[in-house]
Write a structure and sequence with these properties.
six-stranded antiparallel barrel; globular
């Protein structure tokens, strides 16, 4: 890929609230550091092992509004320890069309393509 080509799944730096629900085990609260159409990176206080099947519950919180929770299936791919936290990398799994559409709206909002009206919030 040349320097001028856009990545296939551009990542958006953000601060979304996240709950990583490890299926059959634990729930971990954290913040999404970046997100794309194929996955995300969550900063959390405790680790989630690689290859864990999860549901990631995302919520956008603004000063004047917050979104409904968007729950997406994901599989953790990697784990990195950082100063007192863990970065958890995960790829999204199979989703319904409705979930894909809601993820697309969220990504478009984070990219600045969609604006929310303060008055309607």
């Amino acid at each position: 890929m040349s320097a001028r080509e856009a990545p296939i799944n551009p990542r958006f730096v953000c601060d979304l609230e996240a709950i990583v629900e490890v299926i059959g085990r634990q729930t971990v609260q954290g913040l999404v550091r970046d997100i794309s159409g194929s996955g995300l990176c969550v900063l959390a206080p405790i680790p989630v092992p690689a290859s864990s099947e999860t549901n990631v519950h995302l919520r956008l919180v603004l000063d004047w509004a917050e979104s409904e929770t968007l729950t997406l299936p994901a599989r953790t791919l990697w784990l990195t320890r950082t100063s007192g936290h863990f970065q958890i990398g995960a790829a999204f799994g199979q989703m319904t069309m409705e979930k894909w559409q809601r993820l697309e709206v969220l990504l478009r909002f984070l990219h600045g393509e969609i604006a929310l009206d303060h008055a309607s919030a």
